[in-house]
Specification:
- This protein is mostly helical.
- It has a domain of 252 residues.
- The protein contains 24 helices and 2 strands.
- The longest helix is centred in the middle third of the chain and has 29 residues.
- The radius of gyration is 23 Å and the shape is globular.
Length: 477
């Protein structure tokens, strides 16, 4: 066994090669890297790890067995991702997501414009599970309104991004929110509940700061969002009764129902409410001319399984009212599976154990372990330039270290999101920073300081670790 012990240099070598390849891949493909090239790079990283293993007489079958165990461990997460796509589809055609956006827009008022931007973007991102879509739709509109009111665009962009990433982090529809617990070996709703402990204080501080900023700003003109609301009303039957569905799902989550059951109930109720409230939408989605049971069935099933787009009279809403269904989650599922291959081989050759031991020998305290995780996520965001990779690579690298310290997996998944997901937008050459800057028309340097939620989150998670606030111990059950 001693002859098979890897040196730290050899254990880190596959990760180093992986980061170099991923960095180059992101340079070449940009935002499209997640469409498949990143996944193949992860497989190449696994091949490099396998070569290191062969040099240490680790058999091919033992590596394949560990990969199989890794894939089996994320079966639940993969099924949850599929149901998340299904839920997003039925919540769109039923009018639930449009209703959330409709009522969210009503809180916009010039005197509290900046805090209102945060709240609106938080609501919409929470409903859609996408900070990117939120920024590309409502975010653009808010930037335009801010210009009319004479508010610096950097401030508005910072408020938009803060709210959008807050909602994205807590939404069960978000791919990163599903990815983090999958990498850490945790459970989705436990992760979300645990994440509120750091996320809610961060957004409260952000809101307070923007309220103070609002008192120093003078506005001119009005924030006219009536055209957006009118377009929603023209297309959907907006009714408060639609909120029964998310209320039922939240109740199931609070009652600690299994995630798959909660998501399945939410999906089926969404389809039922589409049948009750949005018959014209079902006709449009099914591509039919009149309503019938077959048309309703086809409309609901299409929304659940494949990409769905609802066209309105306002172009800003068209991108917002789209869903990928179960099909839209396949990219993230593919990423997880390839990450499990890389992680499984790294585990089989003893690389993860070697790295974990080195980390544990340096990280003598819980705080140092959390700090190492935060630093690794930031490093991946800076080098590999992708928020998904800042979750995948540190997630697999640190999972054993947290387990060795008897720390619950939600500690790791929360730290991954607090330091990986939200900071990606603060780096100009990261895919998120480049995307948000391009979409909003505001340089990263202009909105960096005002994206308070994003740079505050890592400090809050480290503060909790330093004072041992809400650090969950690992459960054997």
């Amino acid at each position: 066994m001693k002859s098979n012990q890897l040196s730290l240099g050899r254990a880190l070598f596959p990760i180093l090669i992986l980061v170099i390849l991923l960095s180059y891949n992101v340079i070449v493909y940009g935002d499209d890297a997640l469409s498949g090239s990143n996944q193949f790079i992860l497989l190449l990283g696994g091949a490099v790890a396998a070569i290191v293993g062969f040099q240490k007489n680790i058999s091919y079958n033992s590596m394949l067995k560990k990969v199989a165990e890794n894939l089996q461990s994320v079966t639940g997460a993969l099924l949850i991702l599929l149901f998340v796509g299904a839920l997003a589809g039925t919540w769109l055609i039923s009018g639930i997501i449009p209703a959330m956006i409709y009522y969210g827009l009503q809180i916009l008022h010039p005197s509290i414009f900046l805090p209102a931007c945060i709240l609106i973007c938080a609501i919409i991102s929470l409903a859609t599970g996408s900070s990117w879509t939120t920024s590309a739709t409502v975010g653009i509109a808010l930037i335009g309104i801010g210009k009319v009111l004479g508010i610096p665009v950097g401030m508005v962009a910072g408020a938009v991004i803060s709210g959008a990433y807050f909602g994205d982090k807590l939404s069960p529809l978000s791919d990163t929110t599903n990815l983090a617990p999958a990498m850490a070996g945790g459970e989705l709703f436990t992760h979300i509940r645990y994440m509120t402990l750091t996320t809610v204080p961060s957004i409260i501080v952000t809101l307070i700061v923007f309220l103070i900023i609002s008192f120093t700003q003078t506005t001119a003109g009005t924030a006219d969002v009536e055209s957006l609301m009118l377009a929603i009303r023209d297309k959907f039957n907006i009714h408060l009764g639609l909120f029964i569905v998310p209320a039922v799902v939240v109740l199931l989550i609070v009652r600690k129902a299994p995630p798959l059951i909660a998501l399945l109930v939410g999906t089926l109720l969404g389809g039922l409410f589409a049948l009750i409230f949005q018959k014209t939408i079902l006709i449009e989605v099914a591509g039919a001319s009149s309503f019938s049971f077959n048309v309703a069935y086809r409309g609901i099933m299409d929304a659940i399984t494949v990409a769905t787009e609802i066209k309105t009279t306002n172009p800003l809403l068209n991108d917002l009212f789209s869903s990928g269904g179960m099909e839209g989650m396949l990219g993230t599922i593919w990423l997880i599976m390839c990450a499990m291959v890389f992680g499984g081989i790294m585990d089989a050759i003893g690389a993860l154990a070697r790295i974990s031991n080195a980390l544990l020998s340096w990280a003598q305290t819980t705080f140092q372990l959390f700090a190492s995780t935060v630093a690794s996520c930031l490093a991946i965001n800076l080098t590999a330039s992708d928020q998904y990779l800042s979750i995948v690579i540190p997630g697999k690298m640190f999972a054993k270290a947290y387990k060795e310290r008897e720390l619950a997996p939600e500690n790791l998944s929360r730290t991954l999101e607090d330091s990986g997901t939200v900071t990606s937008v603060l780096i100009p050459w990261n895919t998120c920073g480049a995307y948000q800057s391009g979409v909003l028309g505001v340089g990263v340097g202009e909105y960096f300081f005002y994206a308070i939620f994003n740079w505050l989150s890592p400090f809050v998670t480290l503060l909790y670790a330093a004072f041992k606030i809400k650090i969950a111990a690992r459960s054997e059950t």
